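Suppose you are handed a protein chain with no further information: no name, no annotation, nothing but its sequence. What can you learn? This example shows the usual starting point.
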Amino acid sequence: MHRCVFSHGGWIMAAPGGGHGPVEMSLSLMEKLKVLPPDPARGAAAPSRGLWDAWVMSAEAEGPGIWPPAVHAVAYGTLGKSPPLPVGNVNDRPFLLHIGDVGDLRKLSFVCTEGLHGKGILLSKVRLKDRDTREELGFEAANVWLFGKDGTEPVTELAVIRPDCQPLRDVEYEVRVRTGDVPAAGTHAPVHLTLVGEFGDTGPRPLRRGDHRDAFLRGQTSMFTVRAVDLGPLTSVLVGVRASGLGSGWFLDTVAVRCSPGSPGSRGAAGHAELLFPCRQWLDDGVGDRSTERTLRLLGETRDGLGETLASHGGSWTLRLHTGDFPDAGTELGVSVTVCCRAGAALPIGVPRGALRARGRHYEASLVLPEELGPVVKVRVEMEEGEARDSWYCRKVTLRRQRQERDGRGGSGEGDGKEILKFPFVRWFSPENGGQVSELPLLSSGSPESPIPVVLEYVVSVRTGSSESSATTARVWLTVTGERGDTGRRALARRRGERSFAKGRVTSWSLEAVELGPLREVLVEKGPGSDWHVEAVSIREGPFAPFEAVFQAHRWLRDGAAGPTASVRVPLTEVRPSAVTMAPLPSDAPAPKSDGRWRVELTLGNEDDDDGDGGGSARGSPGRRQQQQQTLLLPPGLCLVVYGSEGKTSPLPLVGPRHGTGDGGASSTIAFEASRPSSTSSLSPSPSSPSSPSSE
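A reasonable first move is to predict its three-dimensional structure. Written in structure tokens, the prediction is:
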């Protein structure tokens, strides 16, 4: 017995002339799989152990003579993915893939880490068979080049073909990477990126510079294309740089992703929406937390007509709260949603317990925003406290302006129901590690080059007094207020095994919130229970921020007749340098040591710039521009002296390879390779210069 799968992948149009008669068309055979009937003697089918026999067949007559050991396969399913598994051959001989329990398979990803020496492999067939359930799966592999025709693509993905559902389509993702505009932000090190969605991920993909010399340099935006089987709604981006040593890091500003408009996987107009994943951090093993790899969470989407800045979003709206469509995504706990506007917040919308129990469903409520609150700036979602195992996956929150009856003058009232504000949370809520509250801003139409509000991690440290009876066992809440809004009331939950609010103790928590701007005050609240002496609160934008805001309280919070809670508002006292601005080196990591080789870049500006910073536009005749280009030929005796914390170098001749990028425009850059003795130690500004030499 065989199971035949026929492919169409297109619209079935109505009969010509708008009639209701039958429509005939031909469907091509995609896959023919052998299906064995159940054996009554064996009883019920045995559960799968995740052991699959695999057949991979090349369309070439003999296939590659020596199969490279660097080729692996990764299986993606509804419950996760397998580790990289070695691919035995492409000569249609069976080999074993121990995939494990990943749920229903969605795609198979072939990964090559060493390249195939200038030629890919043309496939004709890929097939999998479960050793226990005897289930067979096919793939649309005919005439597909494994790792590209020239063998330079690191990954090739194939979607599983099932008769009961449409196979996932191939999608081209356009990726825009913007490097920050801060000193030494750029990097020449290799950069890799992984797109992550609800259906899986792409695996690490190298972002090759190709002909783009300015890729990953300061202030530059670089474009790349990533082809993969449809990932579903994107949730995050993993970015890394393979660099180590002083000055080799990279300051990443933003990653923006969208489906190519002509891609088979783009979904109509939604395919043109650009998803933003902000970073605004260093990827550097010598800065901050020393991380060279970061996971960027989805902030929102922008496209023309989405979330333009308005004077007010006042009126009637329909709020929808969407739960993810996969196992255990729902929750029995209650949830609240707060819409925050420029002039204040609307009353929270409470979702009763059990309303979000079902996966893939949404809860709907009506909301009226007063005109005086102004435009919407962000949405806050909070899940009530529960057990550590309680969790809920929120896919998104939407606000749709309600359709109004036409008024007596023929107007359409407040709106026609087409205005929608979207907040793609795509994240799990859990009582563990303070993950019960999350915020997202409303993004205006624009691009990553425009300033956008981002979600920051605020590290809050609370110091309890050292006098007798200063400690408390009561519940404590904190509200942080800045020039751009507040965090809302956040519970400072006690962690198991930690003595929070103990005498003389400093305890820290992490709060995620849309950036608040310069901080102004904190509101500290204590519930019923023992008295508490709060001495001070300090807040940093991340664990290794260079500065911290300090709020000196020195107040007792006691139960009284004023209400069930005692509170104190504490204004900002001072902003001071943080005590810890860099993570310690691992105990087994060698201290970074320079070998004395440096890349020196000279940026030559246009002498006609009005402000003298090289940022003006080039002017003048073609002869003048040619003269400017000739300034790239520097005099042969030009030298550089580098000052460090332990002395200075001898004059370093600027000789050797030069990489000019000047085109007669506003500025031109020449790169040199220079050497200096390692005894100079870390660089410091020259006594005659107000700033440090660039080491980008």
